[in-house]
Structure formats: structure tokens, C-alpha cells
Amino acid sequence: MTISRGELLIDLEALRHNLDVLTAQVAPSQVMVVVKNDAYGHGLVDVTKAAVESGICWIGALDVPTSLSLREAGISSPTRIFAWLLDPAEDLEPAISASIDLGISTVEQLNTIAASSAATPARVHLKIDTGLHRNGATPEDWPELVARARALEDQGTLEIVAVWTHIAEADDHEDSLSIARFEEAVAVAHDLGVPSPLRHLAASAAGFARSDARFDLVRFGAFVYGLPPGDGPSAESMGLRQVMTLSAPVSVVETLPDGRRRASIDLGFADGLSTLAPGRIGVAVHGRRHPLIDPLEVDRAWFDLADDNEVAVGDLVTVWGDGSAGEPTLQEWGDATGTMSEELVVRLSPRIPRRVI
Ligand SMILES: *Cc1c(COP(=O)(O)O)cnc(C)c1O
User: Which domain does 81 fall in, by range?
Assistant: First the structure.
């Protein structure tokens, strides 16, 4: 298959493999597949459908519009779709009617649910803040939140499905403190009449590494796509495979007046490539790495050919992939350009055609 410009290849076989690895790693806890930011740039609907076909019951969609678009795309109950970023001005009736699980941090949000005209009880996950200060009720506000939810549960307005939090996952000691605060909040909820909610706390890093962080459900984002954090263990060492490959054909091969030889691909910073890349990372052609060089243009990137005489216009250049064709992984790209691999994938322009295999 020849491609004319750049192409994003999404390998659903690799995605399914990662889901099997993550499911086995955390069993008997369950896996929630987080698909925010267009499934980390991999394609919301394709990724969600593949996850559901692989037996995943929980999808983390971030917000209500994304959740509803998944229901419209045919992701029906009993697949659970979780939305935790709620717009204060939002009418929650469509989400409740579509059986979307809602992450709830405040009594005001509970009141919004109570005021909605939905005919079915809302499914709510009550959020405690355990130190990250990114939403969540404080330990002081927690009893009131739980008590109000319990009262609404008795009225048939909602069902308390879960108690949850989000932790930093940057520091083991800090995470241990968050886990302890979480367990206290679960105990408080228990005493207020929530006997056995689902409990979820961890995202990729802590969920993979720490059995005491898994509880009933782990919210996996980055690792689903084979994207480990920078400077940490590689995807390979965890048995994960990078799902996305970015490639483009050679568009120009030329010799400069000083004798240096260079070649280009038609992907530039408008496509989402980082201007920090030249001099820091390379691309692979025929299994050989070549460093990117300045200038990174709006829609073109140059790489140095040195003594490589084999490269011709039309040859396939792999910008990043799982490393099997000699190319750098997204983890290497992230480390080289001082960012996370996740940022690189979510910054990609939607104008790059995506091919799902
Ligand atoms: C993004 C996100 C996740 C997934 O995080 P990863 O580190 O990519 O696994 C999980 N939970 C919440 C609340 C998130 O916002």
C-alpha cells in the first residue's frame, strides 16, 4: 500500500493485546478504558468498539458530549460509560436517560440531578479528593455529599454506584497517603449507608504497578495505547505494544551546496510534530535511523542522510512506531523533546489520515 502524505496507522491487534495484558495484570479488578481526547488521538469510536469487542465493560469518556456520541455510535448498555467532567450549566437529563455514569463531587451537582426530568435513576460515582485537588469533595465536605446522595437514593432519584478518586501517580509515598485517605472515605460512606460501592482510584501507572491501588476498577488510559511515561520502564518491558505508527513517504531527496544530503517528508509542525525534534530525535527508513534536522517547516520535516545512498522519493519513512522497523517509539520521542508521549499524540492534526487495521 502506498501513501501520498503522512498516515497514522492504528493497530487494533496491538490494542487488543494490551487489553489482554492489562486485564490479566489487574484481575480480579476490572479495566476501564479511558478514551478522552479522541482516544489519545487513536480514534474514539474505533478504539471503543474494539475494547467492547474484547470484553471491556467500562469506558472512561471524560465528558457528557463524548459519552452521548458513543451511545449514538452504538455502544449500548450494559457497557458502562463514565463521564467525570461535567459542565455546571449542563442539563444532565440526556446523560441520565442514556445511562451514563456520572462522576459527582458536589452537592450542587446532586441538586442538578434531582432537578432533571429524567425518568430513570442517575448512576453516580461520588468523588473524594485525596490530595490532587482536581475536583472531588474535601474530607470535610464528604459526609454531607454522601448523606445528600443517600437521601436522593432513597427517593429513587439516583443510585450510588461507586466511590472514587484520582491520584498523582508521581510519587509512591504520596500515592500511599492518597490510598489511605481513600480508604477512610470509603469507611465514612459505609457508615452513612453505602455498604459496598465499587471503588476506583488508579490510572495506568499505579494500577499497573500496585495491587493496593487497584480496588474494583482501574482507569487505564496511556497504557491501553502502549504509551508508558517518560524515563520509566518501556512498553516492551511491561509486555505492552505501541498501537500507533506515524509514517510518510520521502517527498524530496537532495544534495546541498556543501555536499550534505538530506531528504524530507510532508509532515511539519502544522501536523503536530514538535519544533524541538530536530537535533534530538530521528526517523527510520529501511530500518536505519536518520536524525531530523532544522528547519522543521509548517508542513515538512527534513532529515540528514549522511552516507545513506539507498533512500529514494516514495520510500516509507517511519516517524514513530513500536520500534520493530528501527524507528523510535513515542516514549523516546517524549523523552527527546521533553514531554510525555501522550502530549505528542493528542497534538497530532486531525488532517493526517488515519488507517485502522
Ligand atoms: C486521564 C485520566 C485517566 C487515565 O490516565 P492515564 O495515566 O493515561 O492512564 C484516569 N482517570 C482520570 C480521572 C483521568 O482524567
Answer: 12-228
Q: Whose CA is nearest to atom 13 of ligand 1?
A: 166
In a domain, 239, yes or no: no
Across the chain, which distance is largest between two alpha carbons, in Å? 80
The answer on 254 and 224 residing in a single domain is: no
Read off the pLDDT of residues 272-284 as tens digits, 9 standing for 90 and up.
999 999 999 999 9
Distance CA 254, CA 232 (A): 38
How much of the chain is in helix, strand and coil states, percent to nearest 5? 35, 25, 40
Residues whose beta carbon lies within 6 Å of some atom of ligand 1: 34, 36, 84, 166, 203-204, 219-223
d(CA 282, CA 340): 17
Q: What is the pLDDT of residues 57-105, one digit of tens each?
A: 999 999 999 999 999 999 999 999 999 999 988 899 999 999 999 999 9
The answer to pTM > 0.70 is yes
